[in-house]
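Thread: quick sanity check before group meeting

JM: Hey all, I'm pulling together slides for Thursday and realized we never actually wrote out the predicted structure for the chain we discussed last week. Dropping the sequence here so it's in one place. If anyone has concerns about the input, flag it before I start.
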Amino acid sequence: MNGPVAPPHLELAHKLADTAGTILRRYFRQTLAIDDKADLTPVTIADREAEGAMRVLIESAFPAHGIIGEEQGALREHADYVWLLDPIDGTKSFISGVPLFGTLIALTYRGSPVLGLIDQPILRERWIGIEGEGTRLNDRPIACRPCGTLAQATLFCTSPDMFGVEEAKGFQRLKAAVKLTRFGADCYAYALLATGFVDLVVEANLKPYDWSALAPVISGAGGSITDWRGAALTLSSDGRVIACGDRTLSVPARKLLNA
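JM (edit): ok, ran it. Output follows.
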């Protein structure tokens, strides 16, 4: 393991996922109170408890590291190392009893993602990506599949409602050019892309804790993930994301999105 990611970082990432998974399995398909946040997205005790438990572990292991979480905000966000936590990416699926959500755990170094973990605690699937290394699913090496043209591609998006007016026009142009378009799955779609079952994921209005874990997973599987202009994702990115299993799809897909 080279670069800014050290074995204790990876050990902690697994511990965070194990801890969150235990909590989420306890609450999944149970009757829960559902609150609406300021942006009208749902949140439950499961989201809050899982993030709280992970934050305690990070503070204990690396008290100088920063933390940015969906539910409890930012702490030391300008530190060299910052952990980004989304305890349930796909809360709408979680509260509907659909096991297509995930826990997202990322470690950034000086603003760039260097470690990413996607955990599906119900299906017991865990994707790990580390900068400079190959991505693994449950300790098995995986890779994106080749896809020569947009006309052969499968495109995913969590919801068309996430796009603004002009963004929606771009997405419709891309949708018309691909073979198959599916909606839903949240972070699970990106995991499927890294595993060779999906070719494109295009979304907008994402926050750093939504996409930071995805970047090392996808790049380590041979794919690309950038903003809609083709720039690398950092903590200051604008939230518009395009992931391609076959890197050759990036340019034609972005041309349609930005036309």
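AS: nice. The mean pLDDT is 95. Helices lie at 7-27, 45-61, 91-95, 165-177, 187-195, 208-211, 214-220, 250-258.
JM: adding both to the slides.
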